[in-house]
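@channel sequence for tomorrow's demo:
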Amino acid sequence: MNYHCEKNMINHYHHSVHNIIMGTSKIEFNNYIKFEQWKTNMEKDTISKYIKYRTKDTNNTLIHYYRCYRDRFYRK
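structure tokens (generated this afternoon):
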């Protein structure tokens, strides 16, 4: 999703129609196993899926960026 589409989507959810507050958070893990455990639990608890959308190499450290992806069908 490009910047303008994302900005329009956030504006739609937050200001225009749904009054939903959206945000980001940064979470760091000591190892990949702890990340996978967190991701699995979060996806199960929130009926969502986290999709990797970017990888960045900084100072010989790989940083993976994930987005929460929900389908259009709400389930309690």
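heads up for whoever presents: The chain has one domain: 3-69.
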